[in-house]
Model the fold of this input.
Amino acid sequence: MDFTLSPEHQALRRMIREVVQNEVAPLAAEIDRHHIVPIETMRKIGATGLLGVCFPQKYGGMGAGEMGYCILMEEVNKVCTSTGTNVGAHIGIGAMAIYLDGNEEQKRKYLTPLARGEKFAAFGLTESGAGSDAAAIRTRAVREGDSWILDGGKVFITNGGYADTITILAVTDPTLGARGGITAFIAETDWKGFKVAREEDKMGIRGTSTAELVFEELRVPHENVLGKVGEGFIIFMKSLDMGRLTLGAACIGGSEMAVDSAVRWAKTRQQYGEELAHKQSVQWKIANMATELEALRSLVYRTAWLVDTGQPFSQLAAMCKLYGSEVASRAIDMALQIHGGLGFTRDFPLERGFRDARIGEIYEGTSEVQKIVIANNIFREHGVRVRP
Amino acid sequence: MRIIVILGRVLDPAGITINQRAGRIFVNREEYVIQPADRCALEVALRIKDATAAEVVVLPRGPLPDDDILRQALAIGADRAVYFTRERFKADEAVMVRLLEAAIDRLGGADLVLTGATTLDSGQGQLGPRMAAALDWPQILDAWQAEVVDGAVQAVRQDGTGYVTVEAALPAVVTVVPGAVKPRYPDGVRLVNIYKNVGEIAAALERWEVTDLVGVDMLVPLVERRGQDFPPPRERGVRLSGAPDEVAVAAAQALQKRMNG
Amino acid sequence: MEFALNEEQRMFQNMFRDFAAKDIAPHAEEIDHEETMPASILSKAANQGFLGATLPEEVFGAALDGVSYALMIEEVARACVSLSVVTAAHVSMVAMSILEAGSDAQKAEWLEAMSAGEVIGAFALTEPDAGSDAQSLQTRAVVDGDEVVLGGVKTWVTNGGIAGLFLVFARGAEGIDAYLVPQDTPGLTVGYREPTLGLRSASFNTVYLEGCRVPLTNRLGQAGGGWDIARRAQDRMAVALAAAGLGVATDAIAVASKYATERIQFDVAIAHKQAIQEFVANAYIETEALRYLVYRAAWLSDQGQSVSVEASTVKAFAARVARNVTNMMVQVMGGYGFMEDYPMARKYRDARSLGIIGGPTEVHQLRVAQKIFADLDVEIKL
Ligand SMILES: Cc1cc2nc3c(=O)[nH]c(=O)nc-3n(C[C@H](O)[C@H](O)[C@H](O)COP(=O)(O)OP(=O)(O)OC[C@H]3O[C@@H](n4cnc5c(N)ncnc54)[C@H](O)[C@@H]3O)c2cc1C
Ligand SMILES: Cc1cc2nc3c(=O)[nH]c(=O)nc-3n(C[C@H](O)[C@H](O)[C@H](O)COP(=O)(O)OP(=O)(O)OC[C@H]3O[C@@H](n4cnc5c(N)ncnc54)[C@H](O)[C@@H]3O)c2cc1C
Done:
């Protein structure tokens, strides 16, 4: 067993830190306050190659593997969860589906500009009636010659407002359901029939676009079917597996931010004649935060290693997201508390962190859905198929 | 055209805490980065390369325990880098100049040497002028910008009241001040490949034995480092309180006393 | 033991509930978004008697008993936590301090106007370097003839932006004094408004006192008696804030459980899922435990007992319950819980304030520990 990061990953982390400090940190508070999607920042990050961090070099990526991607998510989310979410939706679910299941031509045409950061991606799964129950989607795709005609809509689509490329899950055979009846498509957002209906006003990650999308006779050529007709559900779930792992990595970043700021504040703020650092109430909080952070880090890195070495990882990925989102929420809550009144103001990043962290337990499958997945896997090993 | 960039490493300032009271530097994260001024020099070199298609070769400004910053420089865009190998060789700037001169010679000469005007940690700025003297080339110190035009290097320097452009015929030595330009980021693919030692870029990092370049007798530094210390603590000010006019009077008296005694 | 509300309290409860639902709830989202507390809402609250809730009838107060007052704050908080905090700071911290410690002249000067909502009160104790440890405050009170000159900086003054009267705590010759400082007094400047996570329609300001002169007759209570006034006000406020926590938790459960019956996933309303049932049940269990702690603390104060430990107990618990319950209820609503055009996100943000406002949870816990060990003759320092 060897727990050291490889030299290329150490170097990558250093590079990412520099990019994040220069390009992301200065805008973090601003984009949240004014509800701005930092597209320019995304372009700058893209220009460094980082938006293709985990994809092979032949598709315009860096070839730094899932571990490299985890490091990116960790470092970006340490500073700005909004930017982290934009990056995550782009790489982790948007482009990922094309990488995992696209054919050579699709990868060349769509993945390459996404990996180079020249274009941006979104992942269109959720509908107003289909959140946790993703198989309940209603968006219909009907074959018409060499094309498919899509009608319906999606809600809560991250990057939906500005993405160039979107993967869409739609029902191709209503009689078959999730197994065989659902297909994944790649669409370009400037095609006729694709409309952004509205942007959500959210509590946190306000520097992201969460869009409601409408498809009206959106014509998608057959060559843009991702994978095979009828296998879309599995394809999307595979991308979500990856997304879950990297959300865990994002939560490492959020938790680190919390620990760092709590420690920094506790060693300077004095009450009752001494620094807060001398109070056990504060020490205990920091000890708990730090312990959970390390446990999370181990879990996430181990899972990334499983991915990079081609081993099964889906169970651990669900755990990464479940545990990570809880750890980050708790850590930020405690850090906020240690800041007293100042934690409650927008002048300190914890206020933003607190609002941002709350999304972790909700999107890309709620905590309950992760528990369903985890329990399912466990019972299956014991020969029982449990109902969600 | 061949441009030599000489660069060194420094502990990443973001990873250390300087505690004057405890008289210690706490290293939270031991990570080395290219000296900021040297990084600017590299950027200037790469811009010249972008404009005129030059070859950029990176050499170290001092003994290095590992080749990490050379890899960083290659990831950023340098074409070649040379790592001087020899078990714990010691060198000050005088020794380094001999070594670098020999290295440039072995490279087949150069048209321009660029390096940082000063180091962040030890504040040394001798290397550039010493190189110019040793090579007997013209030098431009503390440049903010430099470009190559018709066989000459034109550089912008600060000059008391403003900026002036000065010119030197090539070959020349130019030192660049920290913060002069915004250095570019490493290129993702180059970074991964050079650290993994794969692809074409892996061959760009060369290792040269020091003693192949200069005799052992030359590796004797003139300067010896005996230790390090903080600068003496600054005298503490006094805090005045009271109504504004009282404070003003007290401040004026204090200043006067200071000037008189 | 008698756990039921009496006839009158039940009547009040219904009245508060109706009013809050009709006149406050419809505006809550908008005023949070705009970050203002409009005069129209305050004057409606005043007309209902909310702003003189526990003041006697002589000054046109509503003369509510403590339990009814807690019910009032609870119901207001169900609709809008910000307004409940604005009201509680005005009534519990300022008006009641004047009623308890004020001279006849002071009562005559302020209480009627406060009941009518013509003057809103603000409580200025916390300073940049004196938060949890408020007793170490540095604001000075220097007597000059029959006047006193106040100098210092106060932070986090609830209602700072709308107050007509500030109850200012300052260090005088004999310890901490309390002064009534009208908003238009020269030398008092209301400054920076904190941009907050929650309670966004309430204002929390820094207040500067520079050569701020008030007549000595504006001192509330004895010289050196300020700390006692502050502590009693904080105890009252702690119970009121706990009632606010109860209100927000109660409403969060109501909103989310209703949502759970309507939201269909996997072909059934999510209410049929044990995960959701567990959330709702745990939230309910915690909230009911809180409910009786709140009512009991309020009832004890009606019996004329000191409620210091009970106040800390219920405040610390309320902060935890409000935080946990709103957190769980956001989860029940899934993605919709995270949207600002549904009320849950606001409740979640508002509820988080209770861990800090009125003294952080840790300090209340320490006070409880102090009491436990004091009974064993061991003195605990904070
Ligand atoms: C900011 C944001 C960004 C998003 N980005 C994207 C995106 O880019 N692409 C995309 O496709 N989607 C996206 N989503 C959608 C997100 O994945 C869904 O919100 C999430 O899956 C939950 O669905 P829901 O909101 O409909 O909640 P619901 O499914 O209605 O869940 C409500 C509650 O019921 C629980 N529940 C549901 N079913 C069960 C069950 N069987 N057993 C136990 N408990 C259950 C849930 O855990 C939750 O607590 C985003 C959402 C948000 C808020
Ligand atoms: C929304 C809001 C409204 C407010 N309204 C008012 C108001 O109207 N009037 C007013 O005067 N003040 C008001 N305050 C101020 C409030 O009372 C203080 O914020 C609070 O007392 C904490 O002080 P602080 O912010 O300085 O935190 P600090 O005292 O610096 O505390 C920081 C952290 O350290 C912990 N801590 C402190 N001391 C100890 C100890 N001895 N042992 C263990 N842990 C400790 C605290 O629990 C906290 O977690 C308000 C605050 C808020 C957030």
User: Anything to note?
Assistant: The radius of gyration of chain B is 22 Å. The first strand of chain B starts at residue 2 and ends at 7. Residues 254 and 260 of chain B are 10 Å apart (CA to CA).
